[in-house]
Please model this.
Amino acid sequence: MIKKILIANRGEIAVRIMRTCRELGIPIVAVYSEVDRPSMHVRYAEEVYCIGPSPSSESYLVIDKIIEAAKKTGADAIHPGYGFLSENAAFSERCKKEGIIFIGPDAYAIATMGDKITARKTMLKAGVPVVPGTTESITDENKAIEIVKEIGVPVMIKASAGGGGKGMRLVKKMEDVIPSVRAAQSEAKAAFGNDAVYIEKYIASPHHIEFQILADKHGNTIHLFERECSVQRRHQKVIEETPSCLLTPEVRKKMGEIAVTAAKAVKYHGAGTIEFIVDNDLNFYFLEMNTRLQVEHTVTERVVGVDLVKEQINIANGLPLTLKQENLFQDGHSIQCRIYAEDTDNNFMPCPGIIRHVREPHGFGIRIDGYVFEGFEIPIYYDPLIAKLIVWGKTRDEAIKRMKRALYEYKITGIKTSIKFLERIMDAKDFVSGKYNTHFIENNEVFLFESRADNNFQRDIAAMVAYFDYQSQRGKNDIAEDLNPAVSEWKSYGRKTSMMRL
Amino acid sequence: MIKKILIANRGEIAVRIMRTCRELGIPIVAVYSEVDRPSMHVRYAEEVYCIGPSPSSESYLVIDKIIEAAKKTGADAIHPGYGFLSENAAFSERCKKEGIIFIGPDAYAIATMGDKITARKTMLKAGVPVVPGTTESITDENKAIEIVKEIGVPVMIKASAGGGGKGMRLVKKMEDVIPSVRAAQSEAKAAFGNDAVYIEKYIASPHHIEFQILADKHGNTIHLFERECSVQRRHQKVIEETPSCLLTPEVRKKMGEIAVTAAKAVKYHGAGTIEFIVDNDLNFYFLEMNTRLQVEHTVTERVVGVDLVKEQINIANGLPLTLKQENLFQDGHSIQCRIYAEDTDNNFMPCPGIIRHVREPHGFGIRIDGYVFEGFEIPIYYDPLIAKLIVWGKTRDEAIKRMKRALYEYKITGIKTSIKFLERIMDAKDFVSGKYNTHFIENNEVFLFESRADNNFQRDIAAMVAYFDYQSQRGKNDIAEDLNPAVSEWKSYGRKTSMMRL
Amino acid sequence: MILELNIDNKHDCKVELLKREENLITFKVDDTIYETDIVKVTEGVYSIVVGSKSFNIEIFRGENNKSYEVKTYQHTYKVDIIDAEAKYLQNRTKGLDDESGIVISTPMPGKVIKILVKAGDSVKEDQTVIIVEAMKMQSEYKVKKDRIIKEIKVKEGDTVAANQPLIIVE
Amino acid sequence: MILELNIDNKHDCKVELLKREENLITFKVDDTIYETDIVKVTEGVYSIVVGSKSFNIEIFRGENNKSYEVKTYQHTYKVDIIDAEAKYLQNRTKGLDDESGIVISTPMPGKVIKILVKAGDSVKEDQTVIIVEAMKMQSEYKVKKDRIIKEIKVKEGDTVAANQPLIIVE
Model:
């Protein structure tokens, strides 16, 4: 059984994993880059190890350093979180060789699912529906034209090693096929060092729906239902929810079964996610498999009532799953909003900086997975995700209203965040009705980005408070002797203010 | 339908009620005493009204002031929370006369259940089991002796108007009956202005188990299962959980039905709680009814998945219940710890003061209902409850481990709190096994209060940090030029420390 | 004392404290008089009550202590205190700009990934001169008109602060 | 510089800073040498790493800035800085106590509910002299020995601070 777990990650996910380890009574080791010395995951852990300079290429991504940290601290297992080394087959393999338990699948599953063309072939063979297109990388440009003729425009050209929207091209006209293939190839080459690209049918109103999988090392594989992740900006998820408004019970059941088939096809063990693309007619196609914990695993945890990190650790320990498919059900509705440090009015530009004040929402149905605190400087080197706000409601309507309330309570000063933007999404008609697809943000641009009218009263309030603070800072006091008695004279609070309206 | 709700309360419960109002889109009015001017409920509300000086007898308890506040602000409904005016029949009646909706039961139900002798009689008549004893107040001392002979010692003498352990006497020997009756009478007279006392059989290993009730104005009454509240100090609950480890499904069902019968006997509407005393053989007796929301309503909300404040408001609006008894079930296990500002090593003496730093637990299965923040001075005038920490787990074992983890994460500096004491309870064998009754704290005194061994290493760590802070404050810097670069030179963090052990 | 404030770089207003009795303060904002009850609840947070309306206001003082981020319920306002010194600096900075050239900088901290020009180069309208990365996102900075590169103040790999001058063009 | 510290009113120790390079500090506590990495993460919170052991420490400075509440994972320590001034004050206070009588005070703030004695009264061991209420709980304060009431410094209804002298007895 695992005796000590090294968490090869940082930020909210490192803290989230540590929480479960603590509940299980398993000692933890935090690793950190130089800039992360005051980070929450370092403060949370009782044992820590510095793995080098701040850029992740010199710390969190360096296999040797992570292995060294595990050896030095006596950790016999490593949890990779998401991102960084979590989907690196060589890292999984290296852990095995070093006699360290990698809390995740083996190299075969990671490698097979990591290459999109191999994954497509494997899925086709297993009887899992994939988006119509090629199963080989494009070498002959004339062949490409033939294929596009067969499946019909529009099509997508995609990099085999791709991700995050890089090396992708949408082709609407036949004459664009060859230029697009070439452009995608060169972009893929530059980004991933691999110019293999393939062609897929383009789905017009796509829904991004994924299924959570758990598989033990004894051949038991189950799914924990779906997550709807269609609200995206720059191919990055912003809001996730479960259940999906689109699925019927029949389709849900069928997709779940197919997801289990897909995982079994690569002899998967651990927690994983099968991503599907679903059209308006509920045709669904395998898109890719994420062979790790997802950022949005939280909504599944809430409606299914299962701690997924705990399951991952149990699986890594070789224990059989105790959850049975027939006993699982979705209770109520859960939504997650990702709180990014970014300027939503300026093309979602990341906004690192120092957090000055945080006020977090609380109460029934609220969960926060975060890692920042007052005085913390968000480093420029990593992801702009600072917290995830997860709500639960008996119904979707209740969950949306609760999310609005929670976002209203959530205040972060010092940096720009996506909180206000997320509030607007909760008010957007298409979101409230549940009728949205991956084009949601562009389709609702006017509503989401228009500047809201402010008013003189609010502006004057802001002016008076700024005036008061400024004068207090300078020790100015105009009339009374102490302009800011608030700090010292608590007892004098609360005189009834005049009700006179001005 | 209700258009604006005045919350006639303060602290965590005022904020908790406001959260639901916000989710329902109903405007709120906060009322506050002078000392509460900077309190969270005043900050949370968009409309506020000062109701006078700090002592609750001059503000939160003054019916005229609350009514005035409602009239002036145009609130058409009042939520009383718990405590203060929540179980005041005259207040419920006054609201009715003023045309304001009281979010709670009518005066008849409050008055009937508020007087323990009347309540006992009413319950007996309805076929609800009560603890054997008198149904009339004791006027003839010889009669008292006769009754005690009949039911046998030990017995409890209790004040009819009582609460909070006042006017209560345990009698173990026949010769103590008369002195105890007299003592209880005089104490009751002093505390409640009413010297009526009655006699009840004393239950030796009592469990305090209560059932949550919801009843609409159309005669629909349901229960939302039990809460186990046996961990008490000075007759005040400290920890609550649901489900109870003691109950069998059969007894649970029967108690639920009896609880519904009890509520119907006073034509109850709103949310209420039927408290039972249960002995080790699962005999259960009606103890009293709390005709309001309970502090511990949160654990029920979590396992049943129902927002009880929302239900209260719907009921007050005259809507029929949409919940059906047959659809309700308990999902998993929930525990609540009450975080008090108190010195647990000094007879739980309350500890008001200024909160200097707060770090709250987060993550899966955690809920906090609180109201304090950094810089807030907890007033001396009110209850020492500063927050409630509620956890959920799939099993009781998971819930306990999660609670331990959450208490570990919870840090409040500046005042003394019960956090460490609660951590010890989570480690106490009797609690972990679920085999405990209301004598839990006294039975486990040695374990709960013994001082834990510290060690030199930890003490030295504390000394070094104090040294560092002290010198930084004084601007001393010994060797380097700046003793505290931490604040300005974030970039220099994270040099690898020497691994040399000293 | 009257202070001139600018809000969101567009609205100017004059604020005056007319009367004060402990936390009860009468303000005049332009021509409107407000009787307020204002308390500092904790560092960076104020509670202000006007009539029966309550506002929880979170503020953040910028580096020069004169530029505020003020959060009300619906909005985040940028409030600048315009005193004599600020006016003087404003004018002086404008002057500097004209004399010493135009400064290229980034609104966020980040790391310089690539510098595509060197001092003395002539660059065309819309030509990218520098690429800065923050949080896995690269941003390209371009010149808006044909320019000549006057000075390059950073090198590739440098970590730069928000608004730090990177390249001076003229 | 060496400082004398007292922990939990029982352990005395001497702390010395031997060497410092930015946040890497070598301390000597009595006879033990610790190489530490210490950073202030936010007001009142320090992170200290010794070897690979990490401690998140929350501190609170008492009013005289010399008395600390220091929270480690398992314990809350009371740490007092014993400098020359503190020693002097300590002696002086002791002296005062002896000369001017014994002070009855409460450890918490509260409200005086009842004063059961007046100046000049003789009181017996264990007799209650004053009742103070805080947060709905009343506490009775008694004399430990037979005493004479010298001075009553508060009246019923007064709000009193923690450790404020209420009654002087001799």
